[in-house]
Design goal:
- By secondary structure, the chain is an alpha/beta fold.
- It has a single domain (39-200), classed as OB fold (Dihydrolipoamide Acetyltransferase, E2P) (Beta Barrel).
- Helix content is 27%, strand content 30%.
- The protein has helices at residues 2-14, 17-21, 39-42, 49-53, 62-65, 73-78, 134-151; strands at 58-60, 90-102, 108-114, 117-126, 160-176, 190-200.
- A hairpin with a 5-residue loop joins strand 2 and strand 3.
Length: 204
């Protein structure tokens, strides 16, 4: 009887130990983080966003877009949910995709170059569906999945340079970003943000 009681007592003392020995969950970095600066304009959730995105694309080139006159920093700070003239245009551009990464704000950051001059670059971005309005969530998530399938999945944080530039046709809304040393940033801060389509091969 005494032996059985002692065994039961030992069992009750030891039984919590397995749970104490279990590993605590490892952070995968998968927690969603969304941006702040001019975020409604970047994600089409500003008042004009959906109207702009539904417009017929205008053909452009990387060389032309990096020369567009940019607003001042003061003007950008004031335009939290309003658009400049070139941000009301959907552009379709033949490019060379030369690199990508996933930003801290969850965007797919894609570095594009002029097909004949890879030193002339601009940025295109695909936001995460969970950082946009519900009407665009599936659209952007599907676009990101297709980009990852066609070009490889961008890694978080560090720019991944493609082994060889890949010719592509990108359709996206014009956008002016603040200059802060981004990988592949145009001298005027002009971007295609958000991307509405990106397919392999030059625009036809």
């Amino acid at each position: 009887m005494k032996k059985a009681l002692l065994t039961s007592l030992l069992f009750s003392l030891l039984s919590p130990l397995p749970s104490l020995c279990q590993r605590s969950p490892v952070s995968t970095g998968a927690a969603q983080h969304c941006g702040v600066e001019r975020w409604p304009v970047k994600t089409l959730t500003d008042p004009a966003g959906e109207t702009v995105a539904s417009a017929s694309p205008t053909l452009g080139t990387v060389a032309e877009l990096v020369m567009v006159g940019a607003p001042s920093r003061k003007q950008l700070l004031a335009a939290t949910s309003s658009r400049f003239a070139h941000e009301k245009i959907v552009y379709r551009v033949s490019v060379a995709v030369i690199g990508d990464k996933e930003e801290a704000d969850s965007d797919f950051h894609i570095v594009l170059a002029a097909p004949g001059n890879h030193s002339t670059m601009l940025i295109a971005e695909i936001p995460s569906g969970s950082c946009t309005g519900p009407q665009r969530a599936n659209f952007f998530n599907d676009l990101r999945a297709q980009f990852a399938k066609d070009f490889g999945k961008p890694a978080a944080g560090k720019l991944r340079r493609l082994a060889q530039p890949v010719a592509a046709c990108v359709t996206g809304v014009g956008f002016f970003d603040f200059l802060h040393g981004q990988d592949g940033v145009a001298p005027n801060g002009f971007e295609l943000h958000p991307v509405l389509s990106i397919v392999k091969g030059p625009c036809r």
